[in-house]
Design brief:
globular; mainly alpha; 495 residues; Sodium/glucose cotransporter
């Protein structure tokens, strides 16, 4: 217990200190939100990775999908590394940085408004972000507080409040730069910790081969007639597994808090190096988490399975106290950075995109004050949702990712690459994605994971189809956006 307390207190102290150290660098709203678009490759890559992989994945998704699919859950981690990190950086990184800087956009709604010349589109996008980022933030709090509560025996609600206070301190004080630096430190802890965790779990099962042998004797509820499915290549439910891969891997391509990292990166050289760093980070963290979760049945048994309790239980059974302290740091590191990004994006969206849609000019000092105040408000709302006893991590995650990524993937990607994309197509896509997710929340005609994956894939189809049958944007509007790439190419040729 001494080591656990010591490590947590030390971590809290360093995190808060970083926030206060960078408080002077956040002099205006631009510095607070994007750190002056001057963030290097290591900080950007680690900020992307730690925002991507939070307690939601480490505790909720690794536990649930490891239980459901066994070792084949490793495909989810590989999809996250290849599609969610490598391809996202290669395809989106450079173009996002160039066009958002050219348009002067700091948020997803601002980008959509200026790319498609539509304030109404900006307002709709802002509302979607405000409504659906809060459940995602709550899911992160819930996963983090769950493992913290089991490890220390502290009431769940106090764990949530404690994490909220820490997040609030360094986000409200230091802004994006403090978030990026803390993300780097937290990412190093995650890399070190995941190696220890996977090794300890395998040792607890008697080694890799013996763990596989034990797992092969278990039967999945998804396909009870298929023996050994939990150690097979594609598991007991390949279609369900594919839906999870799509949801968790394609989702970052349209999630505002993930795309935000490309806005702030310093230059194109940083994009190239950041691609490599981010991918390696994802291989270790995502693959390690889902691989570890695949052995959950060896350590967790209950008449009624509570997915959110699987990973905390298996870790407390296999790790000594000193390593439990390391695990706590890993989970806290993964979650705090995600929380910081979610809160920053939510509050910025309210001030710049929602309030800004009704008030033409907000003084910069007033804007900065409002963003900081709303950071605290969003943290408080998320705590209330996370404290609700029946809110399951994966349900909240699926609801948020499906609605957000389903709404923005098509409009954002086609907006970067295709001049023919229309504002009507963007509206149609957002209405469809939100309508599908909300309808499923009430009617429950499919799992949130499956519906979220459908919304994302549909976005890539709806936008071009509707664009072909709706009026084009004025040529001047399109050219004013895409000239950004020509200007950069010209400067590169001169150099």
């Amino acid at each position: 217990m001494f080591w656990k307390i010591f490590l947590i207190v030390f971590f809290f102290a360093v995190t808060a200190a970083v926030g206060f150290y960078y408080r002077k660098s956040a002099k205006d709203s631009g510095d607070f939100i994007l750190a002056g678009r001057n963030v290097g490759p290591w900080l950007s890559a680690f900020a992307y990775g730690t925002t991507y992989f939070s307690a939601t994945i480490f505790v909720g998704y690794a536990g649930q999908f490891g239980w459901m699919y066994g070792i084949s859950a490793l495909w989810i981690g590989l999809g996250n590394a290849i599609i969610g990190s490598l391809l996202a950086w290669v395809v989106l990184g450079r173009r996002t940085r160039i066009m958002t800087k050219h348009l002067g956009a700091s948020t997803m709604p601002e980008f959509l408004a200026r790319r498609y010349d539509s304030q109404a589109l900006k307002l709709l996008a802002a509302l979607i972000i405000i409504i659906f980022l809060v459940p995602y933030t709550a899911s992160v709090y819930k996963g983090l507080a769950g493992i913290f509560s089991i490890s220390f025996g502290v009431p769940f609600i106090w764990c949530i409040i404690g994490m909220a206070v820490l997040t609030g301190i360094y986000v409200v004080v230091g802004g994006y730069m403090a978030t990026a630096v803390n993300s780097f430190l937290q990412g190093v802890i995650m890399l070190f910790g995941i190696v220890l965790i996977v090794g300890s779990v395998l040792a607890g099962g008697g080694g890799f081969m013996q763990s596989l042998e034990k797992l092969s004797q278990h039967t999945s509820e998804l396909n009870p007639n298929l023996n050994g499915s939990l150690v097979s290549m594609f598991g007991p439910d390949p279609l369900g597994l594919l839906a999870v891969v799509v949801l968790t891997s394609l989702g970052p391509w349209g999630m505002p808090q993930m795309i935000h990292k490309f806005y702030a990166i310093k230059d194109e050289r940083s994009v190239k190096l950041g691609t490599i760093i981010s991918t390696v980070f994802a291989v270790f963290i995502a693959c390690g988490s889902y691989f570890m979760g695949g052995f959950g049945r060896l350590f967790y048994s209950a008449e009624t399975v509570v997915y959110d309790d699987i990973v905390p239980t298996m870790l407390t059974k296999t790790l000594p106290d000193i390593l439990i302290g390391v695990v706590l740091l890993v989970v806290i590191s993964a979650s705090i950075s995600t929380l910081a990004s979610l809160v920053l994006v939510s509050s910025t969206t309210v001030v710049r995109d929602f309030i800004g849609s009704f008030i033409d000019k907000i003084k910069d000092k007033t804007s900065l004050l409002l963003v900081r105040a709303l950071c605290a408000v969003f943290i408080a709302i998320s705590v209330v949702i996370a404290a609700y006893p029946t809110s399951m991590i994966t349900t909240l995650m699926g609801l948020s990712w499906g609605a957000l990524a389903g709404s923005f993937i098509g409009p954002f990607i086609y907006g970067l690459f295709w001049k023919r994309t229309t504002k009507a197509a963007c509206f149609a896509n957002m209405v469809f994605a939100v309508g599908l997710i909300v309808a499923n929340a009430f009617l429950k005609f499919a799992s949130p994971t499956m519906v979220g994956a459908i919304a994302m894939v549909a976005s890539l189809v709806i936008v071009p189809l509707v664009s072909f049958v709706t009026p084009k944007l004025p040529k001047a509007t399109v050219d004013s956006a895409f000239v950004a790439y020509s200007d950069v190419a010209s400067r590169e040729n001169v150099a």
